[in-house]
Specification:
seven-stranded antiparallel sheet; 4 helices; Beta-galactosidase, Chain A, domain 5; Immunoglobulin-like; eight-stranded antiparallel sheet; about 10% helix; mainly beta
Length: about 400
């Protein structure tokens, strides 16, 4: 679907919700929300705000004061308070937009053909955006859960199919443990969870905590157990994938909280980790026609081992240039992270591999031990986009992730 068509669909959805809603809106005082860009321009950006008082359960829209199309909004309760989230189409430097919050009625925005739908499929789960598959969360067949495929904004899959599919023409077949999009690490209490083999550890989907659908975003939150080769549970993580209904590409936030049990857990210093993507082979720099760029201006093979706020990997797939950008949040562990990004198609954020990445660094310099009952938090935003890093405004998207627009509620 084109950007214009996606915006039109969102506007039609919002209009369909708000027109019958004005009577019901009289039952609560209107809320005015102002979003300000300040001294920078913003591309399309998810924006959230905590409201001063709870909202009745239901569907909401934001009506801009300039009379333009209403914007779908979505609520959730966080620590007993209502959080409202919507997507700002974009702001110019110094621009301010004022909205009136309206409670809507009418058709549900969580139907299979609109918004973001998250649903179970047997032991796995799948995420659809506006009725089309975006990704599946696969829980069986490997030593780790993973997300496959990742469908890009042009409607084609932009991560490598191997080893899930073994006979795709033109694909490389190295590193069969690189499964599309995944999170794990090569040394946890000395055990390798990154590779796949008889002596490696495994991460196992233990529970589905949240499967939430909506007009603005969908949430898949799962619990994952880290199991050593002897069967002992080493730690557990909660990973939340939040997929937004954006017009410009496919945007998702991936937050991971690792919690130690009654014993310390050490994430060891190795380059083999951690938040990984294997891009389509045609996007590779070596053997393909792709390119890599990071926030420091390093390019292609020179991006490996560097610390950066973001890295973008782009190239041709099915005749169109597409890319995958990953951004490290300022509150993520050891921001800005190191990057284990290779010109043969591997793309991973790894804050632990200091000895491998920094010339002269002491062995185990990157080790990090989570104390008993303690936590480790990693936060990333991923954008699947058309064009190269400049076309997709990756620097601006990353800046908006780190410092979103100012929001005032009255």
């Amino acid at each position: 679907m084109s950007r214009q068509a996606t915006f039109a669909a969102a506007a039609a959805l919002a209009a369909g919700l708000v027109l019958p809603a004005l009577a019901s809106a009289r039952s609560q005082p209107p809320t005015t929300i102002t979003v300000s860009a300040g001294d920078r321009a913003y591309p399309e950006t998810p924006v959230s705000v905590e409201l001063p008082s709870p909202l009745p359960r239901g569907t909401y829209v934001l009506q801009p004061s300039d009379g333009t199309a209403p914007v779908p909004a979505q609520t959730e309760v966080v620590n007993g308070k209502t959080r409202l989230t919507w997507i700002v189409p974009g702001l110019e430097r110094g621009q301010t937009v004022t909205y009136r919050l309206v409670r809507a009625s009418g058709r549900s925005p969580a139907s299979p053909n609109s918004g973001v739908v998250v649903r179970r499929q047997g032991p796995d789960a799948e995420i659809l955006v506006n009725g089309k598959l975006f990704t599946r969360y696969v829980t069986e067949g490997a030593n780790k859960p993973y997300y496959y495929p990742l469908v890009g904004p042009t409607g084609v899959e932009i991560t490598r199919h191997f080893p899930m599919q073994k006979d795709v023409p033109g694909e490389t077949k190295d590193h069969p443990h690189h499964r599309s999009f995944w999170f794990t690490h090569g040394s946890v209490n000395g055990v390798d969870y990154w590779s796949e083999g008889s002596k490696t550890g495994k991460t196992v989907n233990a529970a589905y905590e949240v499967l939430e659908s909506g007009p603005v975003y969908g949430v898949l939150r799962t619990k994952v157990d880290w199991i050593a080769p002897d069967g002992a549970k080493v730690c557990q993580d909660v990973r939340e994938l939040r997929v937004y209904n954006t017009a410009h590409g496919r945007m998702m936030d991936f937050d991971i909280t690792v919690t130690a049990g009654d014993k310390p857990v050490t994430f060891g210093d190795t380059k083999e980790g951690s938040m990984g993507v294997r891009v389509a082979s045609s996007m590779d720099v070596t053997g393909g026609k792709g390119h890599i760029l990071n926030s420091q201006g390093d390019k292609d093979a020179a991006t490996w081992s560097k610390r950066a706020d973001w890295v973008d990997y782009w190239g041709p797939v099915a005749g169109k240039t597409v890319g995958i950008a990953m951004m490290d949040h300022p509150t993520s562990f050891r921001h800005p992270t190191y990057w284990h990004v290779r010109d043969y198609g591997l793309f991973a954020a790894n804050p632990f591999g200091v000895h491998d990445f920094v010339k002269g660094a002491a062995e185990h310099a990157g080790d990090y031990t989570i104390p008993p009952g303690g936590t480790l938090v990693l936060r990333y935003r991923i954008l699947l986009h058309e064009g190269d890093a400049q076309d997709a405004r990756i620097a601006d998207v990353a800046a908006a992730y780190a410092n979103p627009p100012t929001v005032e509620v009255r």
